[in-house]
Amino acid sequence: MIDHVVLNVRDIARSTAFYAAALAPLGYKVVREFPGGAGFGAGPRADLWIFRRDPNTVALHVAFHCGSRLLVDAFHAAAVAAGGRDNGAPGLRPDYHPDYYGAFVLDPDGNNIEAVCHEPAPTAPAKARR
User: Fold this and answer.
1) Region class of 22: left (phi > 0), else alpha (psi between -120 and 50), else beta
2) Among residues 9, 32, 104, 126, which is most buried (max CB within 10 A)?
3) Which helix (H) or strand (E) holds 17?
4) 19 confidence band (pLDDT: 50, 70, 90)
5) pTM attached to this predicted model
6) How many Cα atoms occupy the beta-carbon half-sphere of 108 within 13 Å?
7) With contact defined as beta carbons under 8 Å apart, do 80 and 130 qualify?
8) How does pLDDT run across 26-79, given as a tens digit for each residue?
9) Residue 3 buriedness (CB in 10 A; 0-12 / 13-18 / 19+)
């Protein structure tokens, strides 16, 4: 079980704004800020932290679980609108498994941020016969 993830960023203000916008559709918000850092969470506790450091790692990949494909779509749109670079539009990734629906965006520091739903596509309700 993962408790939290830390990403190193170059510009704390820019990255805080990016993550606040990109993760809002997933229910995440800034839950703690201090000079040089910010924590994001879907509840009162942060599970994603960003810190102003000279990044010593590159191309980290963080994936956020979504309960629906619509949330994956909303994440991708919000992240791109916030300045992220598309790294894989929302869609099925059947090489992973038949219901893997994900979207990928590169954050301002090049980290690969993903939103993924593992649920099958919703089915339309059957029409009543007359």
Assistant:
1) alpha
2) 9
3) helix 12-23
4) very high
5) 0.85
6) 20
7) no
8) 999 999 998 999 999 999 999 999 999 886 666 789 999 999 999 999 999 999
9) exposed
Q: What is the amino acid identity at position 59?
A: A
Domains and CATH numbers, the chain: 5-117 (3.10.180.10)
Structure tokens at 8: 């190193």
Alpha helix segments (H runs only) across 3-119: 12-23, 69-81
Instruction: Report the b/e string of 80-106 with b at 16+ CB within 10 A.
Output: bebebeebeebeebeeeeeeebbbbbb
Distance CA 92, CA 64 (A): 16
* Buried-exposed string 29-39: b where 16+ CB fall within 10 A, e elsewhere: ebbeeeeebbb
Residue of 74, 80, 78, 83 lying closest to 117 (CA atoms)? 74
* Backbone conformation region of residue 58, classed left if phi is above 0, alpha if psi is from -120 to 50, else beta: beta
Looking at the DSSP bridge assignments, the partners of residue 2 are none
Q: Residue 74 in 3-state DSSP? A: helix
